[in-house]
Amino acid sequence: MQVNVFDTPQAAAKSLAAEVAELIRSRAAQGRPAVLGLATGATPLPFYAELIRMHREEGLSFAHVVTFNLDEYCGLPREHRESYWYFMHHNLFDHIDIKPENVNLPSGTLNADEIPAHCAAYEQKIKDHGCIDIQILGIGRTGHIGFNEPGSDDTTITRQVHLDDLTRSDAAPAFGGKDNVPASAITMGVATIMGARRVALMAWGAKKAPIVKKAVEGPVTADVAASYLQKHPNAAFYLDKAAAAELA
């Protein structure tokens, strides 16, 4: 596994955005779409800001890009300010030339009996696009990638999951209290993520340093879903110095 350490999150995000831009342009030159797996949360914000800058200032076009998001909270309509649909449009899609029909996110407003078929269809749509070219990840303090909480092994695919207590506590300020945080979500599985041609995980700040150490240097275990990236043939961590501080 490749580990890249930068002085700042912005420097790391710029490096990763340059790689993604090269992928988009090379695929366009071949007449093929680039298929991106995308993440939400505070971590990818500087990465998305750099993609928007490249679109506005350097003419980077997303007209032939297809995206699949990792996850979505259950019970939140698209217009809810904490839904990942809202997040992605507010922080990226509304500022670039991506086609609405090329944007894919799990639905947060399904009845319980509709969720299994929806998850299966999401998996199939990824396969129909030939797999994800590069999957962007953050990492939660439980070691989750997507919402693959402790106990998620490398056989898991897109499904509904119960959210860990720590994950809900971390989300509580945005929701105005833990009681308002959804108890479950739909997420790509570890196997889905591992099926991407390349995986790039970003992490910033000292709070992420302990879990980054476990993911990079600890045993490969379902207790830390991100540790499975040690087995991926083309995975890289993009870290600032604070997040990398505990690595040997």
Low-confidence residue ranges: none
Report the mean per-residue pLDDT as an integer: 97
Tally of alpha and pi helices: 7
Shape: globular
Q: Helicity level, as a percent range? A: 25-40%
> Biggest sheet, strands in spatial order?
1-10-9-6-2-3-5
If you compute it from the alpha carbons, what radius of gyration comes out, rounded to the nearest whole angstrom? 17 Å
Q: What's the helix-strand series?
A: EHEHEEHEHEEHEHEHE
Describe this protein's structure:
The chain has a 7-stranded parallel beta sheet, sandwiched between helices. The protein has helices spanning 9-29, 45-58, 84-91, 115-128, 165-175, 190-194, 209-217; strands at 2-6, 34-38, 65-69, 71-73, 103-104, 134-137, 159-162, 184-187, 198-203, 235-240. The two termini are 14 Å apart. Helix 1 packs across helix 2 (45-58). It has 248 residues and is of the alpha/beta class.
In brief:
This protein has 248 residues and is an alpha/beta fold. The chain has helices at residues 9-29, 45-58, 84-91, 115-128, 165-175, 190-194, 209-217, and strands spanning 2-6, 34-38, 65-69, 71-73, 103-104, 134-137, 159-162, 184-187, 198-203, 235-240.
Please specify the SSE layout and strand pairing:
Elements: E1 2-6, H1 9-29, E2 34-38, H2 45-58, E3 65-69, E4 71-73, H3 84-91, E5 103-104, H4 115-128, E6 134-137, E7 159-162, H5 165-175, E8 184-187, H6 190-194, E9 198-203, H7 209-217, E10 235-240
Parallel strand pairs: 1-10, 2-3, 2-6, 3-5, 6-9, 9-10
Antiparallel strand pairs: 4-8, 7-8
